[in-house]
Amino acid sequence: MLMIRAEEPRDRAAVFRVNELAFGRPGEAQLVDALRGGAQPTLSLVAEQDGQVVGHIFFSPVTIESSAGNQTALGLAPMAVLPERQRQGIGSQLVRAGLDGCRQLGQPAVVVLGHPEFYPKFGFVPASGFGLRCEYPVPDDVFMALELSPGALAGRQGLVKYGPEFAKL
Ligand SMILES: CC(C)(COP(=O)(O)OP(=O)(O)OC[C@H]1O[C@@H](n2cnc3c(N)ncnc32)[C@H](O)[C@@H]1OP(=O)(O)O)[C@@H](O)C(=O)NCCC(=O)NCCS
Q1: Which residues line the pocket of ligand 1, CB cutoff 6 A?
Q2: Which domains does the chain have, with CATH numbers?
Q3: At 80, which helix (H) or strand (E)?
């Protein structure tokens, strides 16, 4: 049985392992450790199957710098599912539960830098449609945004900045 739940302190090593195996390098796992200590608010969920952590999703603040002033939203990053458990719907359940959690935190919007085949099914669209630019030079379709309430990004066009922890990736 698969369960999506909030990450607890005892999950830390397993979360590191899931990220390291999914990405094939330790950078994203180390990023999660750095963000846990420094960013506020964060949302961290795990997918547990038969007592084992098989997936993880993390959200931390980004700043939208616009002429209307700065606004905080959440960035979805990273997310990971153990290689042998991918393409079984686990990642999708993590995204859906994560977005619900972001809504409960009262956040206006979520941005993500990732696979353009995966995120649109949850409502993500190219962030450029909201006039948002990514601070990193990336193709238009990989930087996506989702309003958690209608119109939350209206008039907020500008540059999206990730936390300083991301610069090390
Ligand atoms: C991306 C990821 C979290 C998806 O988790 P998942 O449990 O496999 O996702 P689901 O089973 O719910 O959905 C599968 C869909 O994800 C997408 N997907 C999965 N793996 C993918 C990959 N390596 N590249 C591109 N898209 C991928 C596909 O659209 C796939 O749909 P399909 O099976 O119909 O082709 C997982 O593949 C993963 O951990 N990948 C390695 C790390 C990573 O890239 N993280 C995301 C960074 S944005």
Answers
A1: 22-23, 78-81, 86-92, 114-115, 117-118
A2: 2-168 (3.40.630.30)
A3: strand 69-81
